[in-house]
């Protein structure tokens, strides 16, 4: 592992923070209480800005604005083509401001600036364009009824949506939630993670600039226990879409059930298996396995944190993993040479280090890493454990950091059983040149996304979500649009028709 230089602001002009207030009904406003909270730069542990701290009173105002915009405003009543054109303008503005958005996420979330500018922001614009294209393709169905009744279905917007988005991909998750809800004709209140509020507020003003009417998108920054809880339990919110931990997902469901029984979609934790069979090219697959755990400093729901290697190539594969970590650069997010930035905040930093100690105590072999960098900021070395057993804490619980558990297996049947031995079911990787093995394993693993000979293969048209404690319903694809729509059936008698 290579440590990079310190801050490199001299190579890039850090943008001034423009938006720190709540965005309600088309305007930036202070919180009702006047309270603010600090958002911290994980590179140096310094305060970036003070952000308005919304709570129940502010959620009430935001929901009221969204309710009025849905019940009486123009957005649900625009022609789909008009909504599409506004969303395409929104996507154009995202690209025009890509560098500033990427910088905000680099400061706020510890994400690599270069990756944000070339991957996160362009893919966010791609998501928006995908759903813009879907806006005028929302169709019901003509029903072939069994008697003299004409029947058809209508797809109608579900209403006011509450989006609660996580801190690991603040840009992409904002658009993955907001894009399809806009296309469906919904209005919404977005509660970004308290760790990463900056880009969500920036997107709010871009939406207004694009022509999204006031009240359609509202952003309330604040904490999950106050603003998030108020949004989930609000009687005038018609749906909640949440991405985050399984623990909080249960609280979201409970609040929704105890209020107006609003539907909920959840994308939660994961402990995804990355399975390598002994017929692969080690030199090609080992780097992919490392990207599967180290990308975005391991703060990825679908991180391939459980690496299963078939015994025939186990030693060679592990040796290659160690070689890769020796060239892996951990450093400042604005350093173009960095491969990995800091964990998002002190809490997550300490959580990752505590799991590393669990691994040591429970008897796993620490092969590489295992330490914090000796510098300011929340930096953790890429860490590999071998001799990991399925019952160990590091093999069972989601760490959400650059910590890899490596395990050896013999047979297809064995690895399927072990891969499924988890409460989670979000994703899996299957690396093999044998088509029969690929088909068998991909159909046997209980997870929402299976990547064969690739990993992190996201696409706007590919639905994404989990089984078991990883949640339910899907983001992306047309499934990601349909969850913001209601199905209404309409039936009327027909008389003296020659055809049913």
TrEMBL record:
Signal peptide: none
Keywords: NAD, Oxidoreductase
GO molecular function: aldehyde dehydrogenase (NAD+) activity
Alphabetical list of SUPFAM superfamilies matching this protein: ALDH-like
Pfam families per record: Aldedh (PF00171)
InterPro entries the record matches: Ald_DH/histidinol_DH, Ald_DH_C, Ald_DH_CS_CYS, Ald_DH_CS_GLU, Ald_DH_N, Aldehyde_DH_dom
Occurrences of domain Aldehyde dehydrogenase (ranges): 28-490
Gene3D superfamilies, per the entry: Aldehyde Dehydrogenase, Chain A, domain 1 (3.40.605.10), Aldehyde Dehydrogenase, Chain A, domain 2 (3.40.309.10)
Keyword Zinc attached: no
Catalytic residues (UniProt): 267
Family: Belongs to the aldehyde dehydrogenase family.
Subunit structure: Homotetramer.
Name the record gives this protein: Aldehyde dehydrogenase family 2 member C4
Lineage: Eukaryota, Viridiplantae, Streptophyta, Embryophyta, Tracheophyta
